[in-house]
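Thread: quick sanity check before group meeting

JM: Hey all, I'm pulling together slides for Thursday and realized we never actually wrote out the predicted structure for the chain we discussed last week. Dropping the sequence here so it's in one place. If anyone has concerns about the input, flag it before I start.
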Amino acid sequence: MSDPGWIHAAVERYERPLVAFAHRHLGDVEAARDVVQDAFLRLCAQDQAAVADHLAEWLFTVCRNLALDRLRRRTHEVAMDAQDSVIAELPTSASPPSQPLEAAEAQASLLALLATLPPRQQEIVRLRFQQGLSYKQIAAVTSLSATNVGFLIHTAIRALHQRAPADLEFSHAH
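JM (edit): ok, ran it. Output follows.
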């Protein structure tokens, strides 16, 4: 049985990012919360020692699989444009008051560009840049090789640069 304090810490750290991740797959925040709850229930049944060293990969993989299972069970198509209705929180920064609007506009433009990528590339880019997962962690979540993850990120960034208007600036630090 897992330590309740460890489970609580995992919920505190990963609940919000997992809900946002599941929401992008499902297009429904309540369904996303259900999937995340199921993922944490499964975590409670795991041996802490078996998953502690790869907790992020484990949680995102379980959450992804549960969300995909739920999508398969649906009888109707889910509108994919709902995926951008949840915008990941930006870290707080000490920026001048004139910059928040410009940053929000740039972020909205970047999210619109991101929506033009194939779904697999969108998912990988979001896991890397919004959730902060490493290539190895993304590979574990998506069942791809780390090399393939790197290639898809590189391809996505190149496509985003080509499609971006000249006045939109964004960095792509790995």
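AS: nice. The chain has two domains: 4-73, 99-163. Residues 13 and 56 are 10 Å apart (CA to CA).
JM: adding both to the slides.
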